[in-house]
Amino acid sequence: MRLIKVSANQPTFKTVYFNKSGLNFIIARKKNESVTNIRKTYNGVGKSLLISIIHFCLGADKDRYKSFCNELTDWSFTLEFEIKGKNHTATRSTANPGRILLNNEELPVKRFNSKVEEVCFNIPEKIPFLSFRSLFKYFIRPGKESYLNFDEASANRNPYQKMLYNSFLLGLDINLANKKYELRKEKQRIEKLESNFRNDDLLKDFFTGQKDVSLTISDLDEKIKRLETNLKNFKVAEDYHAVQLKADRVEERLFKLNNNIILLGNNVKSIERSLSVEPNKDNTNDIQRVYEEANIHFNESVSKTLTDLESFYEKLVTNRKRRLLEQKTRFESEVEEKSKEVKKMQVELDRLMKYLGDHQALDVFVSLSEEVSNLKAKRENLQKYQELQSEYKEKIREIKKDQLDQSQQTDDYLERMHAEIAEQRNFFRTLAKRFYPDSTSGLTIDNNDGDNLQRFDIDAKIESDNSDGINNVKIFCYDLTLLFKGRNHNINSLFHDSRLFDGIDERQKTEMIKVLNDTFNDSDKQYIASVNQNQLNEIKQILDEEQYKDIIEKHVVLELTDNDASEKLLGIQVNIED
C-alpha cells in the first residue's frame, strides 16, 4: 500500500498529493518565525489531523471520531491509495461514518476492513486479534500514545496482543504463539473451574482434607436408597389435612362428653349419699324430754302442734327422697345416653386415626421427595467433582507436557530461523549504529518458556547513555525494519508524526534525515513525515545548502501555517477534541 492523495468535499481543504516513492514532508511553519506570540504555534495547523483523516478513511473506529464528526458536519474525505499496482479510493463522510465507499461500492466499515485486510496482510485463518486495523497502526502510528514504546502502536496494553502483532510483522511463526496462548488459556480455565469447586460450600471440607469423597458418596447412596424405599411405600391422601381436622373435632367432642359423664356420675354418687342418710323419727320425743327436764309442760295445743310438725317433717323427707330419686334417674339416663354417643364417636375417631396412620399428607411426600432430590444433587456434585478432579489433573499434566514440547519446538524453530532473524537484527543494528556507533544494538527474539501467554520475547536494544532521544531513535529504526525487512504485509508506506523528532538533539534529527534519504532513495517505498519548521531549522544548520535542498525542499508536499485559519489543513478554524 502506498498513499496517493487525500482530499475532501469542501473547497477550503488543502488537498495533499504524495510522491509515489521516496520522501514526503508536510511542513508546519510559523508565518513569521520572529513572532513570539504563544498562540502562534506549530500545533493545530493540521499535521496530526491529517493522520487522523487517513485512519478515518481506512476504517478506524467511529467512536473515536465523535467530536470530529460533530464539528465537521457534511464533510467527507477521500483517500486514494495503491496496493500491488492497483489504485483504490476510499470515501467516508462524517454524516454517515458507519459506511465507507470503496471504489464506488458502499460497504459497512467492518466489511471494508476485511476487504482491505485481504490485500494488505497475509493473516492465517483462526488466529484471533490479528486484523487490518491492529496491524496498519505500526505503519502510520495514530497518536501520541503510539510513540511511547517501539512495539506498541496504540493504547492497547495487552502483552499477548502486542507480542502477536510484532511477531506477525517480523514474520515469526504465530501458530507457535497461538498454540501457547491456547494452552495457557485452557490451563487457566481448568484452574478457574477447580477454584470454583474450592469455593463451593459442599466441597470446601474435601479440599481441606476433613472429608473423604468416596465415603461421603457411599453414605449418600444409603440415605437415598432408604428414602426411596419409604417413598415407594408411601400412601398419599390428598384429603389428609381435612381428615386430620375432622379427627381433631371428634376428639374434642369426646373430651367434652367424657367430662360431662364424669360430672353426671359425681352427681349420681352425691344423690346416693344423700339418700343413704335416714331422718331421725324420735325428734318430737327428744323435744318433749328436754322441756320436761326444764320443768316445762306442754299444753294440748302445743302437743298437737308438735304432732303436726312431725307429720310435716315426714312428708318433707318423703318429697325430698322422691325428688333425689327422680334426679338420679335423669342423671343416669343422661350418662347412658352420652356413653352411647361416646362409644359411637370413639369408633369414628378410631377409624379416622387408622386412616391417618395408614396414609400421609401430600406435602410430607413432596418434602420427602425434595430431600431425595437434594441428596441426589449432592451426590452428583461430588461424583462430578471426583471425575473432574481426576480429569483436571490429567489435563494439567498433558498441558504441561505440551508446553514443554512447544517450548522445544520454538527453540528448534528459532534456530532454523537464525539467518532471517539475523538479517532483521543487523538491519536494525546498522540503522542504530548511525546514531550510536559505539553502542551495542540490535533486535533480539527469544523463546519465552515461562508459564504465561507470551511465546516470543521481542526487544529492540540500543545500549547507550540513556539520552532523551534514544526511545525515539529506537522507534524510528524499528519502524523502518518492519517496512523493509518485515514479513506478511504489502505495506510500502511509513508515516511519522512530528512528535517523533521531539526530544532529540539536532544531530540525531539530521542523522534521521540522512538515513531516510539513504534508505528510501531509489526504493519503491514511500516515507511521509510531518515536521515543524523549528525542527527543520536545526537540521538546516548542520546540512549544507545543497543537501538541505535535495533532501528536504525537493520533497515537501504540503505547507501549513498558523497565520490564518485558511492556511491550515481544513481551511477553517475548528476545535476537535478526539
Structure notes:
InterPro entries: DUF2326, P-loop_NTPase. Residues 176-260, 321-405 form a coiled coil. Keywords: Coiled coil. Residues 432-573 form the DUF2326 domain. It comes from Evansella alkalicola. There is one protein chain. The chain is an alpha/beta fold and 578 residues long. Among the domains are: 1-121 and 490-578, Rossmann fold (3-Layer(aba) Sandwich); 236-358. 55% of the residues lie in helices and 13% in strands. It is built from 17 helices and 14 strands. A six-stranded antiparallel sheet has the order 2-1-4-5-6-7, covered by helices on one side. A four-stranded parallel sheet has the order 12-13-3-14, with helices on both faces. It has a two-stranded parallel sheet with strand order 8-9. Helix 6 packs antiparallel against helix 12. The longest helix has 59 residues, at 300-358. The radius of gyration is 54 Å and the shape is elongated.
Class computed from helices, strands and strand pairing? alpha/beta
Helix content, binned percent: 55-70%
Distance between the termini: 26 Å
Number of strands: 14
Strand content: 5-15%
Count of runs of 4 or more consecutive helical residues: 17
CATH architecture of the domain at 1-121 and 490-578: 3-Layer(aba) Sandwich
Strand arrangement across the biggest beta sheet: 2-1-4-5-6-7
**What is the radius of gyration computed over CA atoms, rounded to a whole number of angstroms?**
54 Å
- Could you state the CATH homologous superfamily of the domain at 1-121 and 490-578? P-loop containing nucleotide triphosphate hydrolases
CATH topology descriptor of the domain at 1-121 and 490-578 = Rossmann fold
| Spatial shape | elongated
| Mean of all residue-level pLDDT scores | 84
CATH level 1 class label of the domain at 1-121 and 490-578: Alpha Beta
Oligomer: single chain
Poorly predicted runs: 35-42
Sketch the major β-sheet: 6 strands, antiparallel
